[in-house]
Write a structure and sequence with these properties.
Main location (chain C): membrane
Radius of gyration of chain A: 23 Å
Family (chain C): Belongs to the binding-protein-dependent transport system permease family.
CATH class of the largest domain in chain A: Mainly Alpha
Keywords (chain C): Cell membrane, Membrane, Transmembrane, Transmembrane helix, Transport
Strand order of the largest sheet of chain C: 1-2
Number of helices of chain A: 13
Strand content of chain C: under 5%
Order of helices and strands of chain C: HHEEHHHHHHHHHHH
CATH class of the largest domain in chain C: Mainly Alpha
Oligomer: heterotrimer
Largest sheet of chain C: 2 strands, antiparallel
Strand content of chain A: under 5%
Membrane topology (chain C): Multi-pass membrane protein
Chains: A mainly alpha (286), B alpha+beta (447), C mainly alpha (304)
Number of domains of chain A: 2
Organism (chain C): Acidisoma silvae
Radius of gyration of chain C: 25 Å
Largest interface: A-C, 97 and 102 residues
Distance between the termini of chain C: 38 Å
Structural class of chain C: mainly alpha
Chain lengths: 286, 447, 304
Amino acid sequence: MKTHRPNFVIAMAILIIWSLLPILWFVRMAFMNHAEIASFPPHILPSSFNLSSFVNIFGYDYKLADGTISSASGQAGQIELGLQNSVIVSVVVTLITMVIVVPLAYVFSRLDFKFKNVLLNAVLLAVAIPPVSTLIPFYTMYVQLGLVGTLPGLIIIDLTTTVPFVTWMLIGYFRNLPPIERLARIDGFSRLHTLVFLILPLARSGVAVSAIIAFLFAWNEFTFALVLVNGTPATTLPAAISGFLGQDPNPSQLAACILITIIPPALVAFFLQRHLAEMNIADPVR
Amino acid sequence: MKRREFGTMAAAIGLAATPFGRAFASVADLEPTSGKPVYFRGWQFATDIVQSNVKRYNDLEHGKISYATVTGDYPSIMEQSLIAKADLDVLYANPSSAVRYYEGGWVMPAETLPAIADIKADMLPQFLDAWSYDGKLLGLSYFASTRGCIHTNLLAYNKAGMTDKDFPADWDALYDQVYALHDKGIATPILPHWFGEYFGISWGFVMEVLNRGNPVADPTTHKPTMTTDPNGPAYKTLAQWKKLWKSKLVPQEVLTYNEAAYIDAFASGRYVFSPQQIYDVQTMNTPGRSQIAGHATILPVVKQSWGLIDSALYLMTNRKRPEAQTDDVKKFTSWYGFKDGDGKIYVGERWMESHLLFSAYKSVMDSPATEARIKQAVARPDDYAVLLDVYKKTPFPTGIWRVVWSEEFNSYLRDTLSKFLLNDGDIADTIKAMNDQISSLNDKYGI
Amino acid sequence: MATIANKKSRQRRRELTDGQFALMIGLPVILLLVVIVAYPLVYSAWMAFHRIMFFGGYRAKFVGFKNFATVLSDPEFWWCTWVTIRFTLESVILTMLLGLGIGLLLNRPSRFGSLWRTLVFLPWCVSLYGAGLMFAYLARGQTGLPTAILADLGMQNVPDFMTTRSIVEVLAIGSSWTMAPLVGFFVLANLKTIPKRLYDLAAIDQLTPLETFWNVTLPPLRFTLFVFTSISIVLSMKLFDLIFVLSDGGPGDASSTLTYQLYKVSFKNLNLGYGAAMSFFLLFFIIGSTMALYLVWGRREKAL
């Protein structure tokens, strides 16, 4: 391997700084006390590191070095609840999305049939609808169905975004896979069998990537959560966190919360980036 | 200590504090009977306190209160819930929203409570007036505060060679001093009430016009009262705003602040004056929370009042539910918004103790405990009297807040005023447009 | 001959045709989508043709196309359209350039490659809500990094980016910060499929790095780039959380995109009929711009 040219090193350094800077600005805030965050001009580094915000947001008091107590956050109940619900919602949404989307994208990308374009456009139309414009109808519909403030209600809404979106992304991917259907049929495999036992293993990295995209959509969904489950036992993390902006603000705890929400998807991303790097295994010059 | 344990302990202390245990001491029967939950919703403020209050009720009175908080644009989210007839029994509301909800036909006024006579007797008259509509008291006191009393950063003020003697007596004097302070080398002497929330820039305008002596709209007929007379309150307010904006002493980002950023900006000590909540005197004076701890005070009332009444009520909805459940809603509201089973204004006193939230009840405000509490929060002992004086003289914009269109006008004001600043709007035209808006809203609702 | 034909037809009977199989898989999903998505859409359409009042009793009055006409004659609508265009263009261009850059840089073998990949992916893990807060704290003069750096250098300037002049750019930077890694990783995935021999050939032909990029690297990326350009157009035009948190449409209406304005009209002012009418214009713009992109770009890529 040849040594990296300085240009590359500089570009890489800029990229890493660009990616991390906003996050680091919050890391810094999470370790500051409120007076320090409010200081002007702002300091780049905290004068003392303390973990109190990370402890407080989970409902525990924290004793500072000088003996004073940083008391537990009033949002802790919502945060714990939100964390729990967000995990449930995201996992369920991811699973259902993948079960629906993989065959759907496969069908659209590999087979020819009547009305294909009409149906495809119907799916894509769903991507284009801005959530804000369907918020009120959804809300009214949900009140009638008793789905406001419930996890199934939120899961259904999340699916209306993830299903079309992930379908869109996967279609291009499936298109690039080698044409093995004909071979499979000659060997006497049924279509379902072909899909599950031949295509799926071949496409597993693409499927994995789609899964993390679905997961992230559900994990970070805010608009619907704000209106439909905010303030109920079904609240999710983003909705619960928005409480730190209220009239009794605590930016340090807010920052700590946001950082914690990054951890689960970052872990998933860490284990998935290997797949990301080798996603399109097919030769495009086929 | 874990939060939940704290709640239990607080409740236990509450029990222990009652001399003979509450079986003997109970003044009113506030125990629910329907066995159904009562849905209680509010915005996010010190939710730990609210949770432990609710827990105390549930423990002492065997209640089934389901409490949760709502974030985002509170008045509109609540309006959505009310329109959709969602599960909602007791909620926080600003008086202007309360009037709107009442007109929407979603509110059960406090008049239906058994203890209404006692409640009214204990309420300071200005709040009884502000919170009554259609001859009915709409809800019970959550808090009553002065928003827009002028917080002053004594650290910077004294450093500029100024003392209490130099305190400005009215808005014009305040602005004069802002420029004087700037000449003395202070880059940003004032943080005006121009932030982007629904209670930001629009209320900032309303309070200044009120303090200068104009009610914005007539308290009974709701006809517009602002004039384009260059010496009139509305004109002078906008003229001062324009001058301040053009002087570039206020960073544009203030217009996009939320309340969190607004409070923190003043707590940084960067500014000398700022209209803020009266209870934030404590915030500004807390070490570990503010850079001017121990050096924050507010301007006293000399020639004119400061700010406007910012208050909130506990409202009861009138959604369809069984009679027994409605009774439970009343019992809880009475316990929470007035007196508990032992005849103590428990929640109101607790808010004073924990967050310096002022109450509309005389018995809370006049108590020695409150005096001690306020004296502990202020920078200088004499500030106690100043705080109470400013508080008691604060005006309420009845003409535009005790009317069904108040929220619509408020959101119009917010847009109009920020555009007035940004686009260098004409003062007289802007006032005319605001008056026209009031008239057309009156027409819309047949007032 | 006959036996073969026989065998074929028997096989067909056992096997579903393409169409049948597609129907079996696709129809339930599409029906479900139609029910879940179409109901609110139809409801919106109904609202767009009505004037809805809540006070003095709930009433809805049919008003024909009046709401649509009001939208078109509202200068605020056209202002918001302009803000949307400006924001979308900036956001999409930044996202695509950054995404391409991320893909190209990460494609170089380097030590700790998997660490870099994870770090670069992090912004996509941050919710738009969180990103909005981060950029608000970074961009404000009161709490921002530029002020902190200048102060450390002994200067007293307070750079404020939350102004009418630059707020859209702050939003565009924020949204591209979160979206670019997604594009970057799909670009990276495609780059991995380019056979190394093509680069060897390019070296033999003594192509400049730019020529190599243009003739070898870019062609297989083009379809992915098209797909993600349309995705980021749609996401940018739909963007709400970030604006809501970062600037709340302000200062004034400087960052009120159509989505934000829609929220304000329908949700804050409860002007439901008008809001619903406006949402159809927005939907039309979103679909229109992706279609346009398909016509001028996507159609050619598919032919490849």
